[in-house]
Every structure is written in structure tokens, then in C-alpha cells.
Amino acid sequence: MMDRRSFVALGGLTAAGALGAAPLMPVAAAKPHGSPHSEPDWNALRRSVEGTVLLPDDEGYELAHGTYIKRYDAIRPAAVVQASRTEDISETVRFAQQYGVRAVARSGGHSFGGYSTGPGIVVDLSPMNRTTLADGLVHTQAGTKLVDLQQTLLAHGVTISGGMCPTVGISGLTLGGGFGMAGRRHGLTSDRLTSVRVVLADGRIVTCDRNRHPDLFWALRGGGCGSFGFVSDFTFEPFRADDPTVFELHWPWSRAAEVLPAWQHWAPDAPDDLSSGMFVRTPGPAIEPQLYAFGQWAGIPAELDRQLDRFTALVGHEPVKVVRRTMSYWAAVMHWAGCSEFTGSQCHGEGQTPDGKLPRFEYALTKSSFFDDVMTPKAVETLTRAFTAPGSGAQLRGLEFHAFGGAYNRPQPNTTAFVHRRQRFLLQYLAQVPVDAPEEHKQDVTRWAQRLHSSMLPWASGESYQNYTDPDLRDWQRAYYGRNYGQLARIKHRYDPERFFDFPQAIGR
Ligand SMILES: Cc1cc2nc3c(=O)[nH]c(=O)nc-3n(C[C@H](O)[C@H](O)[C@H](O)COP(=O)(O)OP(=O)(O)OC[C@H]3O[C@@H](n4cnc5c(N)ncnc54)[C@H](O)[C@@H]3O)c2cc1C
What we know:
This protein has 15 helices and 18 strands. It is α+β, with helices and mostly antiparallel strands. Strand 5 (about 130-135) and strand 6 form a beta hairpin. The chain starts with a helix and ends in a 14-residue tail after the last helix.
């Protein structure tokens, strides 16, 4: 079975290289208040934190400075603070305030916009990766990667809603929403969040939940990536991890006009036990795309057949390949991660663990649109034509659909900051070229993604997923947060009036 990770590896796009001359600088200027400050006393910071402070000449800096996307490697932070406890985060925030240096947090480093790096201080939370279960609740630190979280929880027979990528950090996933293969039954990752511990702009450490700082708690569930404070700990309500059945149904690309709308009719209205997506991808513009639906079924395995028969009947053509397997929840996690052949420790980025095997992303970019209705034949034709438009070089191209409905859509759009509660499905547009590809290939793939995205806007709902960060998106405030943006901006003003936490798509801009 194919998985997300195989997509990344397709075409062997793993070569290291320097960043081209494409627009960089996703993060705001280094001086939060614009007032003159003296040179940062890095030794003082070293004395005040328990973790490690890495400056550009220090051993370990080269490995630590980049995010999971090589595209942003040319951004060299003034310091990387590898925090080992909440107080380290707090000390670093106070230090950054004192010297007028911008600070950003990094958990898994998967921000497509590069918002977890910058010229100032990166607070790298990866050493804070402990997960415990107590009193029926999951407590996890802000630098925990999804694969480690799942491995710990599944040893106790429970889990939480997670995404499919094993190396995504719990922080970015939760603070921006978090959908995955259990979401139509159990909701977003952030829907089962019960409390967080967060460091505010003045360095204070506060706990927020439904009763304490409820406004901040509301904002952090969907609007919280980097804008309000640096979260150090999350508490979730888990659920029992029964063995799921995973499936794939493949059709030839020539069936796209039948398969795409059939899936859009079927998947968002299926029983909550079914979480499903659809993949279209190709390792190059002139190569026929692969097309398949995939999913995870939490119900009785035999009942899945009825669901898949209904889908196939809507398509009107039998799939050319069907894969269907009931497995342990951990095997399913590793399957979606593309790590079925690996141990938990190997299912990490190269260099992240001693035996980590997964390649980092190259020059990757994404865009997204939610849809609240099934695409018309004209929309499908526009999509397939724009997807296969000519292009230069080894462009990895992908479309990933993910069905909403079910538990995602039961809350009101303003129950949490995650506004996308009335959508049928999310469509992600993905592209990647090697980071050392010629500059014109990067520009070409960027234009391809822009055209594809904008050609579909007449049929899209106008909403986009804030966690598929798209630095080129105009009117991102409305697309990411809709009618919740005003309330988010007021909460931002209450907790961070001087806008210490800032980046191009920070709340309050
Ligand atoms: C390959 C891939 C697969 C993905 N699959 C899914 C999926 O299945 N489901 C899904 O919902 N999403 C998915 N995503 C999107 C993912 O949820 C976002 O990219 C997410 O923001 C990444 O979180 P991170 O911690 O790894 O990233 P980071 O880059 O570390 O952080 C993302 C943002 O959050 C901020 N931040 C990080 N830590 C903290 C903190 N502790 N407190 C406050 N702010 C913080 C950063 O400054 C940055 O702005 C995927 C992304 C990729 C690249």
C-alpha cells in the first residue's frame, strides 16, 4: 500500500543542497518593539536555562537550526534554545523581551510556511517529549512527535486523534486543529484537549482550560500556532484503541471524472466509523497520476464491505486494485506513516533519532481549500486539467482529499477557534522539487500550485486549513479563521498587546 511517506520519497527527491534565491524570510524582523537594545548576553541565557543554547559556531547548531523542510535551511537563527522544561521557555521569552529579539517556538518543525524558524531565537521544544497517562488523561510535553506519542499511548491500549505524519509535532497539530484517521468518530486532536500550560509574552506560566483563562483556551484550539504564547504541556482525553481496518481502492487516472465526485458524495456522509481520504499524485508532470481512495474503519470489519460496495456503485466501475486489512492500531499508525518496515525509533527524521530513517522535505509547498459541496463535472474537469498542466523538472505533485462531516462537524463553528465545521472535505494541493533544483523550476512549480489553487476557487467554500500554511494566501484571516477572527484578535490584544509573538500570519495582523 502507498502512504504519505512514499509520496515524499517518490522520485528520490532527497538530495541535500543550498536554498535557491526564492523569497525567504517568513518570519518578522528581529526587534519586537523597535527600540534600541544592547547585544544579547547569550552567556546569561545559558546560565538561566537547564537546556542547551546553541549559537551558529557551536557544535550541534547545523543539525538543530533547520526545520523539517530543507527549503528553509538558509534561515540561520541567532540562537537555538533546546528547552528541557517550562521554566526554560519562560526564561527565554523574558530574555528575548529584554534584548528585543524575536522568538518562535518549534515542536515538529513541519510548518509549510517556515514559521518555526527565523533570524531571532528558536525555542526548540523537541527535548520536552515525555508522555504519561494518569487519572484517565494523557499528559504530553510540547515537543513530542506523533509517532512517539502513539507508541506510548498504544502500549496502554488507548490513543488520541492524530494526523498521519509521524514526525509532526503535537504542538502545531493541536494548536491548528488536527485531523486524522480517527477524526470522523473522535473529532480533531484539539477537540479532546482538556488543558494546556502556556508561557505568555511576559514570561508568566499559566494553565488554561474551560474554567481558567477560558478565552485563551478557546483560541488555542485552532488558532494557537505561535500567536498567543508558547505551550509547554497538553492534556487530552484519550479513547480506546480497537483494531481498525485500513483500505485502499485504486482506479486508473482515466476514471478520475467518476471517482472524484463519487468519493465526495460518499465519504463525508459515511458512518462516523469511517475516516477517508483520496490521493492523486505523480512524480513528474508528464507521468500519469496515481489515483486512489484510502481510509480507516473503526467498526466491525465485515460492515466495511457494505460501505465500500456503496462507494464502488457510485463510481460505476470496479477498482483495479483493492487492499483491505484489519490490524492493530499501532500497525495502522505505522502504515499511514509509511513506517511499516520500521521500528518506532526508525520512524523519525534522519538525525532526529540515532537510527531515524525518514528523509526531510525538499523545496515543498502547499495550498488548500475546503469545499462544502460536491464538485460539479466542470470543476472536476478544471481540476484534472490544471493538475496535469505541463511543467519543468522533477516536480512531485499531489492532491490529497480528506473527508470532514461526522464528529468534525458536530461542534458549532465558534465552539473552538477551528471554524471549519460545515465543510464536506478538505483538498490539499502539494508540490515539491529538489532543494538544489534550478531557480526556474522552483518558480515554475510555485506558479503551477498558484494556478491550480486559484482555478478551483469558484467552487471552493473560501476556507483554507491554517495548518497547511500558505504564505502567499491573500485574505488568510478570513480563509483560516472566518468569523472567529475578530474574537481571536481581541484575545491576542488581551494576552499579547505589544505583539511579541509575531510572524507574517500571526493573529492580530
Ligand atoms: C508531511 C506532513 C503531513 C501532515 N499531515 C497532517 C495531518 O494528517 N493532519 C493534520 O491536521 N495536519 C497535517 N499536517 C499539517 C501539520 O499539522 C502542521 O504543519 C503543523 O503545524 C505542524 O506542527 P509541528 O509542531 O510539526 O510544526 P512547527 O513548525 O514546529 O510548528 C508549527 C507552528 O506552530 C508554532 N508552534 C510550535 N510549537 C508551539 C508551541 N509549543 N506553542 C505555540 N506555538 C507553537 C510554530 O512557531 C509554528 O508557527 C501535515 C504536515 C506535513 C508537513
